[in-house]
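Tutorial handout. Part one gives the primary structure; part two gives the three-dimensional structure as tokens.
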Amino acid sequence: MRQIVRTENAPAPVGPYNQAVLATGQMLFVAGQIPLTPDGELVASGDIAGQTEQVFANLDAILKAAGASFSDVVKTTVFLDDMNDFAAMNAVYAKYFDETNAPARAAVEVSRLPKDVLVEIECIAMVST
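Part two.
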């Protein structure tokens, strides 16, 4: 069982992928989100904290569209343009996840991200049926 999740409250996909896919009615796989508004405007150019906030706004909108929240997230992957931005990104990240119940996470530096943004985050969540 597979259901596509879409919301107008996050940027539309810019290629052959969906914002999220709900599999077997419980596992939600959310595509990597970058700091674009739902209208496709890049925010906070050069500001990792501002870009991370927009990424979380996009993740929140998609999670809500699937009936989930940040407390349902079990895994995240953070892609950074520069690992020197890790502390600033992590300060924003900590606002969304309680340390005692935070999801598993990987954080990696990559050579380049779409639209030359500073951060992209994807997640997997468990959705209650």
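Part three, for discussion. The chain has one domain: 2-126. The chain has a mean pLDDT of 95.
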